[in-house]
Design brief:
- The protein has 148 residues and is of the alpha+beta class.
- The protein has one domain (40-145).
- The protein is built from 5 helices and 4 strands; from the N terminus they run E-E-H-E-E-H-H-H-H.
- Strand 1 and strand 2 (6-7) form a beta hairpin.
- The longest helix is centred in the N-terminal third of the chain and has 18 residues, at 10-27.
Length: 148
């Protein structure tokens, strides 16, 4: 094949086609600086920054009261978009409010960043614990606040 009088060997074309086919997977990978900005949380040394130890091991369902500080190292005020109040006990705001068990509170029973977000897994819908392709984060809000 020639492009403006330059002959391109077939091997180069095959290599270029291969790169183009796999480029989306490379960009979406969890490597540093690519795809998942939270990839560093897959390092076990990061766990104690958010999780409490339980019976000699890490408690994946128990969060430190200091976990928000980890989020706020990168997500500074003004860059977090819509922000739900943090450090609040739901029952103090409304006796009717029931936080589902999959939306974790910190060890003192307060709302934190990790109540609604997860730092693990692929980047889908801003790392929300619940979301819908049709309704976005509305399904997350309804989990505690009910349908409006």
């Amino acid at each position: 094949m020639t492009i403006r009088g330059t002959c391109i060997p077939a091997g180069v074309l095959v290599a270029l086609a291969g790169v183009l086919c796999f480029a989306p997977a490379l960009v979406a990978s969890d490597g540093p600086g690519r795809g998942n900005p939270h990839a560093h949380f897959q390092n076990a040394q990061q766990c104690p920054k958010c999780h409490l130890t339980y019976q000699g091991g890490m408690g994946p369902e128990r969060f430190s009261t200091e976990a928000d500080a980890v989020c706020l190292e990168c997500h500074t005020k003004g860059t977090t978009g819509r922000s739900h109040p943090r450090n609040v006990r739901p029952e103090e705001k409304s006796r009717k409010m029931k936080v589902p068990s999959d939306l974790r509170l910190d060890d003192d029973g307060r709302i934190m960043c990790l109540t609604c977000h997860t730092a693990h897994g692929p980047y889908v819908s801003n790392f929300l614990r619940r979301s819908s392709p049709d309704r976005g984060f509305e399904t997350l809000c309804e989990a505690c606040h009910g349908k409006r």
